[in-house]
Protein 1
Amino acid sequence: MADFQIAIIGAGPAGLSAAARAQILDQQNQVSTPSYVLLEGFEVVAKTIQRYQKGKKVMAEPGFLDLRSDVRFEEGRREEILGWWQGRCEELGINIRYQAEVSAITGSKGAFDIALVNGENISAENIILGIGLEGNPRMLGVDGERLDRVQYNLEDPKAFHDEIILVVGAGDSAIENALALSEQNDVFILNRRDEFSRAKEGNLNLILKAISDDGHRLNCFYSTSIKSVTQNSEGKPLHVVMKTPEGDITMDCDRIVARLGAIPPRRFVESIGIQFPSERRDAIPELSRHYESNVPGVYIVGSLAGYPLIKQAMNQGYDVVEFINGNFIKPADYPLLQHQLLGLPYDREVDELLERFQALIPMFRKLNSLAFRELIIESTIIAGYPSDQVLDDARRKINTLASKLRAEGRNPRMTKVIAEGDVIYDRGEFGTSFFTIVDGEVVLENEVEGQQLRTTLGRGEFFGESSLLSGRPRGEKAIAGSNCIVVETPRRTMLKLMNSNEEVRSGIDWIFVVRELQRHFAPFAPLRELRDLGARVGTRQFDAGATIYDEGDEAASLFIVRSGAITLSRQVDGQDVLVSQLRSGKLFGQMALMGDGIRRETATATVAAEVIEVERAEFLELVQRNDARIRQLQEDVSRQVIDKARMSVRPDAAGLFRFLMRNGLGEATNVLVIDERLCVGCDNCEKACAETHEGLCRLDRKSGPTAVDVHIPSACRHCEQPHCMKDCPPNAILRAASGEVFITDACIGCGNCEKNCPYDVIRLSYAAPKKPGLLSWLLFGRGSGPGERQGFEPDAEAKARGKKAVKCDACVNVKGGPACVRACPTGAAKRIGPAEFVALVEGRMQ
Amino acid sequence: MIYRNVMRYAGGRYLWVALLLVASSFVLYFSQGGVQPPNGGTWQGYVLGTVAALLIVWLAWLGIRKRRYAGGSGTVQGWTSAHIYLGTAVLLLATLHCALQFGWNVHTLSYVLMCGVIFSGFYGLYQYLTQPQLLARNRAGEARAGLFAELYDMDGEARRLAARCSPAVGLAVKSGVERTMLGGGMGAQLLQRDGSRFMQAGSGEAAATLLPNADQQPLVDFVAARIPRAAKRSEARNLQDLLAILVRRQSLLRQLRRDIALQGWLRVWLYVHVPMTIALIVALIVHIVTTFIYW
């Protein structure tokens, strides 16, 4: 007989919610000894949220999902939420054990053995893993690593005065902590290596400056590690022995702050026997519909299971305890699916429909049902109807329910009902979602050399992968065919899926390659004839700055840029001169196959890039087809040769081009560039930005680099593959069909986008107070007048709402286009796209 | 061409509009004659005057359009381009309207104010077309905040090095840094006047004296003069390092002072142009009203 029916590991939102449910079930069943235990490695609940900064607003996205938990959770401040949770724990008398870090789990369903770090063992029939993704901090690995004054995080550097503190580590958090602590303490930073190679450039400069500055209370030990830490009986509380290149030295100090990174939980999870579908870092373990892993009896919930939002995690904690107890309740997201599928011409249960859908799409057939369910929840279902009558009925049904729900204050995602012949997306539109046909037909329309090309796709086929993978606008028009039912999946969901499912990834990669080959070499060839060939062509990835090939290399392959950008450069008089810049969808290196086989330039990745490599055999096979567009290919090569030759005799132009690329224009689609020869510094651009965006300006004219009087202010580049969109928990960053990347109100203020943006153009800000009317400003001096800016103190309401991410949206909603450009009196501010970069450079050289 | 200055906006569209306007005004002017000589009281004179007055109101409207950030038609650059060409045309229109009849009265006052507005505008235009390049060249790709940040670093560095030198040098440099002046009143900003000072220790019992330090040159000379007289090699080295910092500081201060002055010149004409416009509109109303009263 096991000690407990359920052992819940990790007292985060998921674990707490699970424990609360288990406790209430115990009360209902009038069990005197608890049937469960909640194990927490720390001394408090919700470690990740504890680590948020003081007073941080915690949002309760997604708004359309209801909370199902015995623990309270709604939008609030960090302290409030932690208070509710801690309070609820005590009120219910939850059987929680703090400082119970789990070191190993063995056994199988019904008899798991859980070994704790402190040497204890606990047995349980089932295990719920809710340990999150942060992992436990890496310890010092020496005796004394668990002493009181050896700490692994730092909440408030201001809390310490005039102490001697050792900071161990060389990453950004170690540097930031050391700098902050050195304001009022004597700090020694211990770096195991002889330089700070892992740090961000800004931090690197700061720490090196602080170390070399005599006036700063900060010193560094390089190539030094801690050998042991013991407690002193008098004097400074800690006695430390350090290993340095000059031999061991000792030091007495008040405190050690070790910032050595975290141990990712994956290794621990794998040690239990749970399999991850791929080696990729962000892969998610496969789970059943009831959150059970491949190890029977081990359930995974929360962010480790791929659900980063608190509400989702709490719902799962509740549900999974019910499942373990044999109550197969409908999940909390059931109504969401009902609404999404309501407009379909079938009268069936949600689960049945999902099963049928999955069976109809070959690529998703092997997906586990939970992952497929998640995919549908995050997608939009599009239903195309032929006749007016049926269409009207379907629309009426949707609208009636939608308005009823809206009256209740909810805003659910409903089926998108369209008419046959409607355009799903148009050529040239930006869009990164991915479409799968569940039923019916969709027609793709394209124009090649003046000729119309129509392809009809049917059940199980998909489209839109090109924009998904490359970030460039749609290359074709998609039209709803007869009785079509299409699943439109957002990019983030799709990437998550591709990262954890090899089948989906290779399926999409393959069709991408095939369509790309078709586009470049034989647009009129039937797709099926190119499929085998496509399977033989590989894709390669390069980090920013990596070399793809060198000038003078002998070679027999050409490349197509799949995503990112490529710089081609040549050696001219011993100088590296940029001769060409290529974006996704372009060919390069053709000369190796169509000329003498020698690379005439060096190709490097401007930003992180993926390229498709076509070898000689496949190339010949393609160009020997009757429908190959060989003349076009030859003309392209001739034109490129001329362009490159022209650029190589203009090293000044090449220099400016390189400057633009270095500042992110290689991946930009729409960037603000100021001509310094025209700018009078009136800041009307900034004023216009603030006036059209609730008082918050999203550009900084004065900052940013300048070369040859071309100034690139700090403002969003609207990247092809936006870095900010990568890791947004509520999916609040969207791209408009016209290309603008913008942040919606769903933002939870987590700051991920701010961190991920390489150009520092996103910041977190409180809402600005509303501007007074013109007259009340003019007559009574209230607030600020038109175009006037004032540093503002956020009001109580804004503070209650919390900070949200703010960035340029290229005035997606402003009539007449970007306000900054329209407000410039001298024409110095322009927003330009990649097509105008050459004109910009040439204009400068006159 | 991605960038065009205001004169070349839309291929000089408003230049042609203005030329057309001026040409038709001349035709109208020379159609006068017969009983009355050309003046503001003929029907042609009234037409010219009305068009000119309406144009003045429209020209002044730029100040409002410029602040209509969300709405408003066209671009501010387009408006500015039209403002310049049509504003120039107004000068001719009004001259034809009054037919060069001047006197000591409110009518001529309007004319004079209008000329003031237009000529200050010409000056502003000249500034707008020439200063940005000078500004950019002076800043050499650095933002003003960047220059200030560097100056701040240099200040710290100079203080640190000065602390290692003799007390006299220490006092001079420390006071020189503290009493460095940038900006000041409008005149000081525009003319780059420098009221910086530094303190020189008196010999023996004598009190320290405050000396002018315009452009930092006196302080540089003061430190440079001590290098060949240094008693120790380490002192000479410290002074050399200090001198290098002071010279860099001097060049930064020059850049900043010039930046402030250039920015100032870009702006100062508006303090004439805008108030005078308001005065012009008032005078214009009086001119029109009196014309009708004494008709």
Note: The mean pLDDT of chain B is 92.
Protein 2
Amino acid sequence: MAEKEIDEHSGIQTTGHVWDGIKELNNPLPRWWLITWYITIAVSVVYMIFMPSWPGLTGYLKGTRNHSERENVAIALAALDEKRGLQMQQLLQVESVAAIENDPELLNYATTAGGSIFGDNCATCHGSGGQGFPGYPALVDDDWLWGGSLTAIQQTIRYGVRSDHDETRYNMMQAYGGVLSRDQISDLVEYVTALSGREANEAAVGRAKPVFAQQCASCHGADGKGDQAQGAPNLTDGIWLFGGDRVTLQETITNGRGGVMPAWTDRLTNEQIVALSIYVHTLGGGE
Amino acid sequence: MSVTEAGSSVERVEVQAVNSAVSRQLYKAREPIYPKLVHGKFRFLKWIVLFATLGVYYVLPWIRWERGPGEPNQAVLVDFPGNRFYFFFIEIWPDELYYVTGLLILGAVGLFLATALFGRVWCGYTCPQTVWTDLFIAVERMVEGDRNKRMKLAKAPWSGEKVAKKTIKHALWLAIAAATGGAWVFYFHDAPTIFPQLFTGAAPFSAYLFAGILTFTTYILAGSMREQVCTYMCPWPRIQAALTDAETLQVTYKKDRGEPRGPHKKGESWEGRGDCVSCRACVAACPMGIDIRDGAQLECINCALCIDACNDIMKKVGRPAGLISYDTDKNMERRAKGEKPTIKLFRSRTLFYAGVWLVVAAVMLFGLASRATVEVNVLRDRTPPFVQLSDGSIRNAYTVKIINKANSARDFILTLDGPAALEVSAVGETVDQGSLTLTAPGDSVRSVRLFATLPGDAVTRASEPVVISIEDAETGETATNPTVFLAERRR
């Protein structure tokens, strides 16, 4: 070993490292730092005894406490479910929407729970506030395809629309592209435009009247007001699922429509579906 | 160690100012300080302050204050689970934390004022670090004896007696520290409930955690770190230099009277020399390990124990008391010029601090006195901003939250004022001519979802101002919140 060099100015030994002629003094580590360091080493040994630490080939060193964060989460979730159990049970027992909406505390619980379920599952299509997008119905207005009562909303959520569930709500807007002539479809577009109170070609409306009665009235009704029992949209209001302009109407009649909403009965619990229905009902459009 | 020089009237203490700026070294272990017990008016005052502050700390959470059914009856309580802060007749919600901010401002400005007037009185008398260190030193003195005995014990080889004394001392310290940490928890829980729980293991983990942390810090800070906390850790010594001036009363060694210093033999003349007899009693008494005769320094906490120590000596040598006393830099100049020393408490600085303090206090008092017991918050639906209904009318939705800060349930009449044609409805409530009555439970928030609908032909503007107001059906107390009714811009 080379002889230790002592710095002549400070009298402190150097580390022997030199950078461009600058030497580093070998000052002692601060004592508080050194003590803290030793403590952390001691703590890590204690930690290894009690807690999971080293990975192995087939598993890991579990420690005497057999601690598992996954299990803790499962336990915490179970505890949360138990805590919510009473209110969730209450939700299942209420008979009408009024019974819930007249109980401010239960309503607050249901809409808070429902809101979070909505955000996780429904907002992707229906929008974060239920405002809807073209092809995805708005849930905040009073125009319902399949009914806006609490039971109807629940039914829709549970089994979906044109979903793969056996009890799904189902209907079909047929594609009239090959059934009706191009002119007939253009006349129907004028007729539907007139139905919702807008200006339209009167001659075309007159020509389309028998076609509508024959082809469309069975679902949309003779007056075009729709039928919630079969999910047929009301054509006389100003609210359009896909769009009410002439080009979109032409497209709808020619190619038909058939949006899909999945069934949620297997993904959400019964209580969750009730809470979700109440939330959707209070968005504004509930009947 | 002390010696009495031949013929001298007072003993001379062999003591170094180990914590003064010149003797401190960064890479040197702390030199222990063995403050000597003194008697005098400042020591007496410090005992009184010590008992008063500790008394307040330990007793306060046990004081009861009836607030009515369902409300905690603890006078001072920080209720984290319930989101409330209780202070006697005041109950603060989380959104009113500015009262606490105001209290902190009052504390800070009050501290500025006290420092400008009397130097570091906070540090010397009331700072928890000073109070607990003083208490720990008192315990140490009780077990191991005064300065000389303690130093002797520290140097002595390990023996049964030494072990016994050290064990008793540390046990007492730990007991005080545990009582300190334990009492802290009482401010956050119902004290009579949590007290037995702490012993039976039924208290929440957080209670043990914070009791443990404060036990540890009290034991370490007051037991072994002491003056190092003030010298190295505390920012206040650095700030105080900006708050004091030449007219600030500080613990001062009157150089003009004391110098030239030197040992004095009994019967010797006092002509041509100062009153300081170099006995170092002031240094031996100092808990900070400094020499006050070096002048004002950041290590000095202005505890005034050196004043008591010096006055004792002055009495023995027959000179007037007050060689070390509360004095100002300016007075030293005045005496040097032969002027009469005066104390100027009213200076622009102190008047300014006092003014600021009074203004903040007045604002807070006014705020507290006129504090509303009801508030109304309105969250307007923003996705979508408005909804077109099937008949062409436009609807906006609002979530209204009525915050009832009173302890009892109250009925509120909610009114929505806007365009005449606006129709109002609410989820689960009946609305009569634009207003509805809601019952808000005491000390909680009642929310309701409101719908306002305007017929299509009544929509004239993209944005209509709307005011949602509530009125206590009984007292008539009101709260309002302006919002808007939005619609699509019509051509």
Note: Chain B touches chain A at residues 27, 29, 381-384, 387-392, 395, 397, 427-428, 446-449, 451 (CB under 8 Å).
